[in-house]
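task queued by scheduler; priority normal; single chain, no ligands, no partner chains; default sampling; output format set to structure tokens
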Amino acid sequence: MNEPVDPEILQRALDRMVSQYPNLSTVLRRGVFWYYLERTSRRARVVPEHTPPCAQLYQDSRSSLFEVSYWNNKINFDVFHVVADGAGAIEMLQTLVTEYVTEAHKLGIERKPKAALDERMEDGFQKYYKTETSSTGTAQKMHAYRLPHRGKELFVFEGVCEVKDVLLVAHEYETTLTVYLAAVLFQAIYGGMYVRDRKKPVVVTVPVDLRSYFPSHTARNFFSIIRASYDFSERTGSFADIIEQTAAVFQRELTAENLAARLNSLAALEHNFLLRPIPLFLKYPALFVSGKLSDFGETAVLSNIGRFQLPEEVQPYVKGFGVFVGTDALQLCTCSYNGRLHLGFTTTMRDPAVIRRFCNRLTADGIQLEIRSNTMYGEEK
């Protein structure tokens, strides 16, 4: 924000925001066969910032699945992924900020949700699930190169630049902003690979907002993924070739047909009559192992969250937005607001060399970049 946050006004704004999104007023329960969300009447309270970014929210069945905190000019909205995906979280945060600024500055904006309550709470996966399945999509997994030297502490890095500058460079390479950033990430990862590791492909997972392909106003989870891979042992490794290969994967996978196949494969688990009667304590080990195996098919994640949009009257009071996601490897989240592109890196790697090489490539391409971090790295004495 462009001014210090008033916690009392923020609390009232939060109360109004929560009333528009009932899925926030839930706790996660462990059932006999599945986990499930249960409504709670407990009021969410605004608190001063007291944890590092992306700190764990879920502790047990009494835990709130989101938190709103503040520090000086900053408002934080932390949300557990089971409640909302990136697009849903953006919508909620935009609502919270609009409610806050409208009251704080008595703007008199008539605030109406973009969709009816039942549309905001619908399950997009169930709405578009078909019993017929297809073999197309991105179900295939491979043993990907894994980034080394991971720890338990999560480090956060921010890069901020002008959207137009990145678009200009991307257009010079005759590609899109997301493909350009993915190619830079591939190259940055390759720069730290040992020769013996180059036989494994680098795989970047890209979440896809399904609302762009299947009409829905849901604020719940409604996304899929594609996996872009590049094998440096079999290809030239030139930046132009990385862009060409990545663009080809995007063009092939980002179709309604392939995404529908992926949607069906995800929703099919819930409709599987053989899995339904199996108790959760037997399902959990299999789900845990499946998740770990999926991790071996991924090197890093690049998520283009999209553009934050606020009413014109609200914009002068808001300086910028940033998005971060908890990870045990490396994730880059991008979002934009008022012509500024925010690059939000989270990583458990002790050495931020990949991020440094990524930023160096942007600046080498003429993009002016402001960099921030929640920690300081230096030579040990």
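post-processing summary
- Confidence is low (pLDDT under 50) at residues 134-139.
- The first helix runs from residue 7 to 20.
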